[in-house]
Amino acid sequence: MTAPSGSTVGHGGLAGHLDAFVRAVREAGIPVGISQAVDAAEILTVVDLLDREQLRHGLAAVLLQRAAQRDAYDVLFDLWWPLGDRPAAEGEDGAGEPGESTLDVPDGEALAEDMRAELLRLLEDGDPEALRRFARDAVDLLGRGQPAPSGQSYFSYRVMRALSPDTLVAQLLAGLLGDAGRGGLAEQVARQTVRDRLAAFRGAVEAEVRRRTAAEKGRDRVAKNAVRPLVDQVDFLRAQSADLAELRRAVAPLARRLAVRLSARRRLGREGRLDFRKTVRASLGTGGVPVVTHHRPRKVHKPELVVLCDVSGSVAGFSHFTLMLTQALREHFTGVRAFAFVDSTDEVTRFFRPGVDVADAIVRIGREAQVVAFDGHSDYGNAFDVFADRWASAIGPKTSLLVLGDGRTNYRQPGVPVLAGLVSKARSAHWLNPEPHRLWGSGDSAADRYGEVIDMVECRNAAQLADFVTTL
């Protein structure tokens, strides 16, 4: 069996190398079971190991379950199965060293200009393999700088600054459009093609810098810093705008599952109440012994839900997510009433009409909702009091109560007795807390006290929300 081109893996170490790669994928948060690891080993026997992209896609097919995992996987693949310009010669271990440059360029000031011309040609051709090899040469010739305190010697920004690929857009468009001219669908397609190829080049440069850094500092160390957390593992309190779009897609199916789990359950199980008349009539055929019982049809209905959501600044990222959840839940409940609070409470159901963008709803809540009565700092006790005084009738025996917040009271009265009264009236009640369990009760947190009267659940990311929904 031959190792992939340019790989540092020998004949005897391919299985161990694959095992290390699978372990790194698992440590990145991608669940990989034993059967998948066995399938990955089988892939090495059926794909062309000299074709790096075939190997990449083959391993991805057996190791990944969701498209959202692909970015993290690609980063790890580039670290463990680096691009090579040529197979290592006999006697060479090639431990992280680059292959010989494929460029024939002079030294001095003309280097960058000649490389820019070569880059323009490659971008016009659109050969991804050639572009990746050029990126390797570019990092080798242009990317080295003074070692950083972390020990890194190669930097992608030096390559991008020297080549300025974004300034080639006009020439690329002219080359792709030819005699077709500007305007219309042809130009739109050409612009998208240019964007995709420039993005591919930037990604190739970054991958090569990571490879060289890994050769200097070790793959495992680089992998921990280079791989972004999967979207379902991003803390809601630290979510960036780029993560919110992925969270929106993750929330919708979880909302459907949550609606099913919180739906009103009959104590008699899947069937309705006993139909005494039909049961007695059926027993006549068995000598009066009710061998078979008959039940009335069970009425299936959507549950009712009341959401109490903390929208203070300390949980801004979490409140954005929880309001997305509220919007998604509206489609699955007969009645969803949403209430937001900081140091006072106001009903915000009116801001979540079907089709309304959550970002717009949040802006309107901050501008129009009466959630601040005093100084704008969280006051759970007063917020619960206001809710109990004005909307106590919103909670009844068919209602599920969902409280969303970190439980930090700014050392004010937590209002535990009021919350306990609301919980006692509801059919079920749960509190999702975005803080780690170890912080509950620390400082001004009253989460441990609230946990005595309501089911308090740690919910820092979408993965924990999925676990909550599954075990509910």
Could you describe the 3D structure shown?
The protein has 3 domains: 1-81, no CATH class; 94-218, no CATH class; 241-264 and 301-471, Rossmann fold. 36% of the residues are buried. 49% of the residues lie in helices and 7% in strands. By secondary structure, it is α/β, with parallel strands linked by helices. A 6-stranded mixed beta sheet has the order 3-2-1-4-5-6, with helices on both faces.
Query: How much strand content do the residues show?
Result: 5-15%
Helix content: 40-55%
CATH architecture of the largest domain: 3-Layer(aba) Sandwich
Largest sheet: 6 strands, mixed
Tally of extended strands?
Answer: 6
Distance between the termini: 50 Å
Structural class: alpha/beta
Secondary-structure map:
Layout: H1 14-27, H2 34-46, H3 52-63, H4 70-80, H5 110-125, H6 128-142, H7 156-163, H8 169-177, H9 184-217, H10 219-226, H11 241-262, H12 276-283, E1 304-310, H13 316-329, E2 335-341, E3 345-347, H14 358-368, H15 380-391, E4 399-404, H16 416-425, E5 428-433, H17 447-450, E6 455-458, H18 462-471
Brief summary of the model shown:
The protein is of the alpha/beta class. It has 3 domains: 1-81, no CATH class; 94-218, no CATH class; 241-264 and 301-471, 3-Layer(aba) Sandwich (Rossmann fold). The chain is 49% helix and 7% strand.
Spell out the key features of this protein.
3 domains; 472 residues; 49% helix; alpha/beta; 7% strand; six-stranded mixed sheet; single chain; Rossmann fold
